[in-house]
Every structure is written in C-alpha cells, then in structure tokens.
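ugh ok fine here u go
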Amino acid sequence: MAKNTYDDSSIQVLEGLEHVRKRPGMYIGSTDERGLHHLVWEIVDNSIDEAINGYGREIDVTINEDNSITVLDNGRGVPCGQHKTGKNTMEIIYTQLNAGGKFGEGGYKTSGGLHGVGASVVNALSKYMIVKSYREGKIHQIKFENGGMEVSKVEILGDTKRTGTEVTFKPDSSIFTTTVYNYDTIKTRLRESAFLIKDLKIVLNDKRKKKQEEFCYHDGISEFADFLSEGKKPLHKPAYFEGIYPVTEKHSIEVEVALQFTETYSETILSFVNNVKTGDGGTHVTGFKSALTKAFNDYAHKMNLIKANVTLDGSDLRTAMTAVVSVRIGEALLEFEGQTKGKLGTPAAKTAVENIVGEKLGYFLMENKELAEGIVAKALREAQGREEARKARERARMDRHEKAERNISEKLAPTSEKNKEINELYLVEGDSAGGSAKQGRDRKFQAILPLRGKVLNTEKANAESALKNEEIATMIYTIGADYGVNFDLKKCNYKKVIIMTDADDDGAHIQVLLLTFFFRYMRPLVEDGRIYLALPPLYKITKRGKKEEILYAWSNEERDKILKEAKCPTILQRYKGLGEMNAEQLWDTTMNPETRTLVQVSIDDAAEAENQIEVLMGNDSARRRDWLENHVSFTLEEEDND
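structure:
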C-alpha cells in the first residue's frame, strides 16, 4: 500500500488562532484537571497518528519536575520548510487553528485527535512551548511563550540521524485551576493507546517521582480484553477477528475486534475509532452487537440448542462478555454524531463490522462447541430470569398491596412536588439517620429512602438474585426508570440521587456497594452525572465564648485551624455517625443546597472503572488485598476531647 506524502504542501490553513485563551472550554472541555490532561492527549494523539499510519513505533512521554510535559516520537518529524502562505510550516502548525495534515487527502490515511487543532490549542493554553523536528538530517526548533507568542523563528540546532517530533509545553497557571499532572491518569490513557496498536512502545517517565513504566503489547487488543477480564475468571482466551472492508474503490474500513466470555454477570464493550475512544458507541458497536446476536442464533438453531421459533436476545448473550471494538476510517468516510466524538455515525462502519465479525465468529463457535453451548445455556437462563422479573414487576404494578410497594410506602418519604428536574433522592444509611433526614429535609424536592444494613454486592450476583433483594428492588422501584438494558433515563424520578452514609469504614463500604449497583444496573445515571456522595462533617466544634457558636469541620486540617484560631474554650465532638446529628444539624451541614458539599460521581475511563470494581467487589481476595495495600493508608487516630 502506497503511503501518503507528508510535506509542506500537505498542510492546509482553515482559520487563525482566536478566542482559545478567552474560551478554552470550547476546545478542551474545561479548565480543571480533566482539561489539563486533555492537553497531553492532543500532543500524544499526533504522535499516535504517525504510528497508526506506519511511521514510528515508539513514543516517550515525560512529566518534568516543573509539571511541564515532553512528548517525543520517532515518526517523520513535523514539516519545517516554507508553506504556501510564506510562513514556515512549523509556525503554521503550532499557531494556526485547524492547520494540519489531517484534512482531505493530506499526510494521513486515518487520524484521531481534534482534526489537527490540537497542537495550536495546546500552545495557546501554555506558558511556554518548545518544538523540535528531527527531519531531513537536521534538528529544527521553534519556541513560543505566553499562549503562542513566538519568541524565536525556526532555527537549525545541528545534524541528526533520527526522525521524529519532540514537544515540550507547560500549562498556563492563569488559565487552569491546577497545573499538577496525575501520573495514574496519564498512565491509564497511554496503556490504553498501546493496547490499540500492536507492538507500539510507549514509555512514561515521571521525573517528579523518579518513576518509569513501559507499555508494549504484541497481541494488541487481545491483551486489552484479557486486561479488562482480569479477575473475572475468563472461560477462554480472547477471540480475535480482523479484516478490511472495501466501501468504495478508494476507501475501506479496517476492523479489529477482541472478545472474551467470563463467569461474571457484567457486560463490557469498549469502542474506538482511529484510536480515539467512542464512549457513546455508534454504528461500529451496533454492527458488532448485531453480528454477535445473529451468529449465536444461527449456531443455536443449527445445533438444535433452541426451538425454531425461539430467538436469543443479544443482551442475554452479552451478560458475561468483555469486548474491544476498534475501527480505522479515513477522513472521507468519517462521521460523528453531535459536537463531540463520543458516537460514530458512519453508516458503512456498521456493515463493515457486521460482515467481518459475523463471518469469523461463526467459524469460532463451530470450533469451540463446548464454550458456545455453555454461553447459549447461560443466555437462556438469563432470559428466563428476566422474564420472571418482568412478571413480578407487572404483578407489583397490578396489586397495590404487593410487598415491594408496601416496603416503599413504609420506607420512602416522598417529595411533595412532582418535578423530576429538581427532585432529589437521598439514600440514607440506617433508620436513625433516616429519621433525622426526614425531619430536616425540604419536603418540596427532597425524598428520603433509609437503607437497612449492607446492600447486596451486585458484582457477585446475577440479575435474578439482585431483584429478589429487598433493598435493591426498593431502589429500582423508587427511581422508577427500570434497570439494565431496559433502563430509561427519561423515566427517572430524580435529578439527583445522593448517597449519604456515615464517615467511617462501614459507610465507605456501603458507598462502594451502591456505586457498584448503579454502575452495573443503572449506568446512564452515572454517565449523566446524577449520582452524588454527600459529605457530612467529621467534627462539631462548640465555641463557649460570650455567645455560644457552633462550627463544623470536614477534615482534621480544618478542625485544627478552627481550634487554633479559637479565642475561647471549645468542645470538640467527633461524629461517629449521621444518627448523632439532629435534624437541624443534618440540614445545615449536609442537605441544605446553600451550604452542603456534594461529590458528583463520574466515569472518566470505563475500562479503569470496570477494573477497579472487579478488584474491589469481585471474588479474588488476593488482588483486592494487593490493591488496598498499594492505594489505601489506614490510620488509627484517637481524639482527646478533654
């Protein structure tokens, strides 16, 4: 296959660099920690685009001691001659928005990133940027400061035998709320990128911690599927399918799929287009699901595992499946839905994946009959359990005296208003705290549902067992949007679902159990940002001056500051649980929208979330112990209130 040329004539200029510093959110989403790390992704994606297109097999990412970032690859190097505009091409790429080789028939067959805007946006939001291009036997360098202001023209530093691009930039602290990079966040993203390109070596070096790791996977997404299934007791080695589907005489779609069935009850599908994650799926995922369902039904009918008039449901087949779906599509065919790149819209991608996976999965099932029959049998059990659950829900709706409704009427303190856009549901640990919450709440928009004891660990239970659990069934009925594949966000009765537990080990465990349930059975609630954790105070401090004053502290540091600044005797109380607060105190500290602190739960990385839930809630106690030892420090602290 002839490789596209990539030289000065490949670079097109669409518009100048404007408004980036004034409205950075338009380009990188936010100016918090997420936006800060997005700068790294934009530069790394340029290096990955080189690797995808067959140029360069190594990328080095360094977090420098001052929290600047250096990204070095061994690709072709940035073009550094004179552009048709009269300016140097390096200057154009790093100062002009939408200038790059990723448009039309430029220097790339496929590409990710922001269609070439990344380099200039990162420059605009940086205190300084230094770019070196190792190309044509020379080292070319250009420097910028204060958001893309050029401080030196392109200069030649010397001779070289290597090729590639090296970019060093430091985020502007006047724009970002933090400029401290998180090692684990970068590590997760780089590891994921290495999985997606076979034999691509990515090295992460953190000079702050004197720490370095290397990622390189010969089997690519097959190893990714294995990684995602770690701890779930896989039933087989990952099945790997690949192929190139011709769409037109000039354009085709490359497809890679790896899938693995496990002994758990959770479905995980990660999808990518040109190495960029499509969090909302799209036509390639639709094609994969369709192919999977058809292949299994064809096999089951052929082997007389199901009756001729019976059809296996795709959701039942996927209950214990981990899959990675990766496609590469040229610019001419690439379509996304909406403003973000979260959902692929290219119609031909559905056909491409459907055809390639459908054919190869059919052969795989015939060659692995014992596995195939086991999956079909499990899908039939899932279907039976789902049908029984549906009948139970119907009976509950028809019979007003059914136990589920009786439990809700006994437990739930509903809102007086029926406005789904403002109403909140508090899931409260214990009846004592539930009583205080019911008395202290704003009845118009705050509903209270006390939970008794530990919630079922839904990571270890199937849907049928989960639905038989009284607390789980009550939550599903109260939220009102069903569960699993039938979950409908539009039917949700609440804008916020707030988990309020004691600030101790048991409370933290209940939080994790509830988050596991929502992640497994109501994931759209999490993805839509509707799940929150309430933060009750750890301490009540009573100042005994001329006039008694009550203050609250949410941390030991805050407690120490209040005690140090107090000019009068104080009484310190360490709250052992929510039940120790009366209704007024609970309202003032934890429920009043004007004064409370809520932590919004979000999923930055589905693969990492999947892995952590499996570690914390799965059956592998050794992995859980290792994780806790490496990530959690336990301190026994006694308070002297005398």
